[in-house]
């Protein structure tokens, strides 16, 4: 009988210790969470980061939104971006422009609103199109019939490389400004006035 009691006490003690160990393990895991594997993986660099530019010209707030690809040693115009083809003037979604006042561009009125911004690069003059359809991937849904304004501009060519596509809206007077696009060796700029 004494032996039976000793065996029962030993068995109870052993099971009790195992349960305490499990409770301790669970307690430590709940109060000291381990890092997930994803946290240890370095973030991948975005190759065409989202950018925007804006300016106040008089009462007009002009805003442009685009994705900014890099040159990364490539030939851009006449290579990655083919000549004489519609280009969404950025990466991913179409570049867009928004104004809260009517603008006068190339002697044509751009009514206040939000528009897609497209170009047709070429070896000579470029065509710039401001289009009703601003919300589209690339140029997938581009339709020339939706152009509100379409005009030619002569690009300036530089020997210096602009690594990432960059837009600037600049105020030049109380009621006028310029819109400028630079990438690779190309600089495209045109003026506007508040209508």
Automatic annotation (TrEMBL):
<dbReference type="InterPro" id="IPR021314">
    <property type="entry name" value="DUF2911"/>
</dbReference>
<protein>
    <submittedName>
        <fullName>DUF2911 domain-containing protein</fullName>
    </submittedName>
</protein>
<dbReference type="Pfam" id="PF11138">
    <property type="entry name" value="DUF2911"/>
</dbReference>
């Amino acid at each position: 009988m004494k032996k039976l009691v000793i065996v029962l006490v030993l068995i109870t003690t052993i099971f009790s210790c195992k349960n305490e160990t499990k409770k301790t393990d669970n307690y430590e895991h709940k109060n000291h969470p381990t890092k997930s594997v994803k946290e240890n993986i370095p973030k991948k660099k975005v190759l065409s980061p989202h950018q925007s530019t804006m300016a106040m010209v008089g009462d007009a707030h002009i805003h442009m939104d685009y994705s900014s690809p890099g040159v990364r040693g490539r030939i851009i115009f006449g290579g990655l971006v083919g000549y004489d083809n519609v280009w969404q003037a950025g990466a991913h979604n179409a570049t867009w422009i928004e104004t809260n006042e009517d603008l006068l561009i190339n002697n044509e009125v751009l009514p206040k609103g939000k528009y897609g911004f497209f170009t047709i690069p070429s070896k000579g003059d470029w065509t710039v199109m401001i289009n009703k359809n601003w919300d589209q991937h690339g140029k997938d849904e581009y339709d020339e019939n939706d152009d509100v304004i379409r005009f030619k501009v002569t690009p300036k060519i530089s020997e210096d490389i602009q690594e990432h596509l960059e837009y600037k809206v600049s105020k030049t007077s109380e009621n006028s400004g310029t819109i400028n696009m630079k990438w690779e060796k190309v600089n495209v700029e045109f003026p506007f006035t508040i209508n």
